[in-house]
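Q: Predict the assembly, please.
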Amino acid sequence: MSPILHMVRKDWRRTRLILCIWYPILILATALDKRAGLFLGENDGLQSLPTPGAEELEFGVIVFAGVLLGFLELFLRATIVSRVVQDDSTVGSTAFWLSRPVSARRLLASKAMLLLPAMVLPQIVVQLLVTYQLAGSPSTATEGFLLPVVSVAVFMMLAVLTPTLAGMAVLGGIMTGVIMGGFLVLIWLGMPLSGNLGLFGALTNELPLVFVLGVCVTVICHQYLTRRTRQSLVVAFSGILVFLLVLSGGWFLEAV
Amino acid sequence: MNSIIQTRGLSRRFGRTLAVDSLSLEVPKGSIFALLGPNGAGKTTTIKMLLNMIRPTGGRAMVLGTESTRLGPEEFSRIGYVSENQELPDWMSVQELLDFCRPMYPSWDQDLCRHLIRQFDLPLSQTIKSFSRGMKIKAALLSSLAYRPELVVLDEPFSGLDALVRDEFMRGLLELSGRTEWTVLVSSHDIDEVERLVDWVGVIDKGSLRVSESVSSLERRFRRCQLTLASTDELPERLPPSWLLPKSVGRTVRFVESEYRERTSVELIRSLVPAARDVTASRMSLKEIFMALARTYRSQRKEQG
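A: Predicted assembly structure:
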């Protein structure tokens, strides 16, 4: 067996139980999310569908269960990524793999080889199936493909920069805070909001996601290949800054 | 000297703290080398730099003929590393750990592995998480020796272990030393832990290497000397720098001679202190030598403020 597959097998054994719990919760959470969306008639292209069972109680239960399951699904997703990535941590100098004949490239390849089919693919399939089942229309490219890839990439980026699940949560909180704070500052400075995707919007609506994916992949590769966590954090936060600047588009440059 | 580890001016700084200061060290091939020093002396940092776990901020190190910062899978398949701080995949059982490690090492010796399992008395099916500290260290050692590494690096492997486990560990290592042509680098703050094991010693203090030589050479070089005087006024004002920790109790003067020579040293003492009577020079154990050096470095630091 190749060294990469050997590592994949080890990680699969480590995460298979929790993956088996995550799959049904992912299906349920996605289904409830879509169902709640149908109630609200929020989703573009679904406005003309009849709103099924419009009773307030049913709607409340669906939203409540959806939120609960959504949080549980998010927690499980973070836990799985944390186990896969942080069991062979790139932060610090005590990880088992550091003194074993395992190269950083192969380790990264093995993590990607597990997470893509075990986490990204099921999300894509579930998104497509649930959307098709409930709405009867094919999902957009963003919903169906890019979002699951980006979500796993973001979790993986948080995991490679921290040693524990709690660390992931803290860093995720800080990054979210920086992004929100940046938005608020831009709005306070007078950036127009309506339909504004800045320079991204000039091309496609998916470009912000592609940009986030690019930053995540850069940070992940940099961290695996160099294990310089501070540098990787600088790259990540620079990515956020560039994201905000690009999102504000020409407006920010004009304002300055 | 045919060295398996060589460092030249190896340094590591953490912010303002200089953890390792221009360390130049050679570990001879085939030796069991003890890197000794008090807690915080820089032993673990040195070992981590040697194994490319952290980067040096100055100098360089060669390990198995390769620059330490370029150590890769090929070199690590010839190195065994056990540390008190090392993380083990503790969700695995010992058998799973061995099954995981075995394919990584072309030189894995299943007979030796079975022998070590018996010797360490490790339950194969129990998860490592449920193990005591001693058993965890034994599991780590098992997974680091079964492929007959050329270089074994043990970073404070005995700290916190009870005497029984330490003895089993030591017997395992000593027995293997007879079977395998390897080099062992073991760090410890307690000479007692490694005295039986080692044939070469390096003493590190505040990041600097103070001594690096064979145990036999140290034992030849160090003597506890004692002489009797009518009065301590008869001592010369300036004592030779090789006289460590001079101390007078009544009319008896004691010190450690760090440059003892069988035929000349006693005569030298008599010529420096003509009034000296009953001059004796007794052999010192490795522990006594280490303690004398540690006290000397400490008093030197105090003098330097």
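Chain B has two domains: 3-217, 223-283. The longest strand of chain B covers residues 3-14.
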